[in-house]
């Protein structure tokens, strides 16, 4: 069964061979070939759990219910109405209807809407880009029934998530910890089998749901609970934070080649490839190492081989990449139509760069070669 796992692009790309072996033995599957990653939302995509904890406590107090922050984290991932019905039964000894629970949940949602938006979890966008470049689908599986949050998902992650790849409280009758939400996620990903998915969760109920669905489940501990709690629910791997998972998700660099141009006494490498090459700082290491040791002093790369995040200066990807080129003393020309990136900050950066000798933003390859020759 150990031979069923191989470090190829269609397999889990960050090793953990033993964990995969144990997953196969426990699940009874013969292979592990993930084609989709299923993300929870709160505490995974957004650093939103502190806001949720505050609103849950304030809202439930209005109905005579006591809810601690630990209760919020322990039940996170369940459908809100299910959480409320369980709490009312436990604390007040009565059964309430779905409609009454929904009325109480609406108050929690109202309070949540008054707070400032929770930030996107650090490392998530970079991780999603790696997943997308690996040819895998991305699905969001949330117990939320708050439509503004679901709409925000489509805006914040528009390059990675489409409306038909979101599972919300409206899609299932039984929420987490039942397997139904993640099984629905597999269905929306094209009727995939459990051994074709990876779940990323942060809460006990969500981990339990992923495990119940027999999907390889990764826990990212973004809350106050100990790692042992998540591991005890059956998580196959536990990471301390999202950036740790992102760093561990190693990307297989696509194949590329150089077209050599002689400019005066210098050699300039024009990069050719079928896929995106420059998406993360470490990608620059591969390009620079190959070019440097082949004697090139300059490099030309087109915008279609560079991640759009490079042209969003807030991501700091451009700064990290260009710092590497500076360290190698490798001049770089980027060729393309930069009107597609209307940011004033970027346009100012382009103008400033074009006055120097390290980096040049050129409309054509001929213009880039002329810059190298000047």
Automatic annotation (TrEMBL):
Q: Which domain of life is it from?
A: Bacteria
Q: Name one GO molecular function term.
A: sugar-phosphatase activity
| Positions of transmembrane segments | none
Keyword Cytoplasm on entry:
no
Q: Tell me the ranges covered by the DUF4180 domain, including all copies.
A: 266-371
Cite the entry's keywords alphabetically: Hydrolase
This one is known as HAD hydrolase, family IA, variant 3
Organism of origin: Hoylesella loescheii DSM 19665 = JCM 12249 = ATCC 15930
């Amino acid at each position: 069964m150990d031979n069923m796992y191989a470090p190829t692009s269609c397999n889990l790309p960050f090793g953990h061979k033993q964990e995969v072996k144990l997953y196969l033995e426990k699940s009874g599957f013969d292979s592990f070939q993930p084609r989709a990653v299923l993300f929870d939302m709160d505490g995974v995509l957004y650093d939103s759990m502190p806001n949720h904890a505050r609103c849950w406590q304030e809202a439930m107090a209005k109905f005579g219910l006591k809810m601690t922050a630990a209760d919020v984290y322990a039940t996170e991932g369940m459908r809100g109405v299910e959480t409320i019905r369980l709490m009312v039964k436990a604390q007040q000894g009565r059964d309430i209807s779905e409609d009454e629970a929904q009325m109480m949940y609406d108050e929690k949602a109202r309070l949540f809407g008054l707070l400032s938006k929770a930030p996107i979890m650090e490392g998530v966008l970079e991780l999603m880009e790696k997943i997308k470049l690996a040819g895998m689908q991305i699905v969001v599986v949330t117990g939320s029934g708050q439509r503004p949050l679901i709409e925000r998902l489509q805006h914040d992650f528009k390059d990675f998530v489409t409306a038909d790849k979101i599972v919300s409280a409206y899609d299932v009758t039984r929420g987490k910890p039942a397997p139904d939400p993640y099984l629905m996620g597999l269905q929306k990903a094209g009727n995939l089998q459990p051994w074709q998915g990876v779940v990323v969760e942060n809460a006990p109920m969500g981990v339990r749901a992923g495990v119940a669905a027999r999907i390889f489940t990764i826990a990212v501990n973004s809350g106050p609970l100990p790692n042992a709690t998540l591991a005890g629910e059956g998580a196959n791997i536990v990471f301390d934070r999202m950036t740790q998972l992102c760093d561990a998700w190693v990307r297989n660099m696509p194949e590329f080649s150089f077209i050599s141009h002689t400019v005066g006494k210098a050699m300039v490498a024009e990069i050719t490839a079928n896929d995106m090459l420059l998406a993360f700082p470490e990608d620059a290491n591969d390009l620079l190492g190959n070019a440097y040791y082949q004697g090139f002093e300059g490099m030309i790369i087109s915008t279609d081989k560079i991640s759009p995040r490079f042209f969003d200066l807030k991501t700091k990807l451009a700064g990290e990449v260009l710092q590497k080129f500076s360290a190698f003393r490798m001049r770089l020309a980027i060729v393309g139509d930069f009107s597609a990136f209307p940011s004033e900050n970027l346009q100012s950066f382009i103008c400033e760069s074009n006055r120097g000798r390290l980096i040049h933003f050129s409309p054509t390859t001929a213009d880039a070669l002329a810059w190298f020759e000047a």
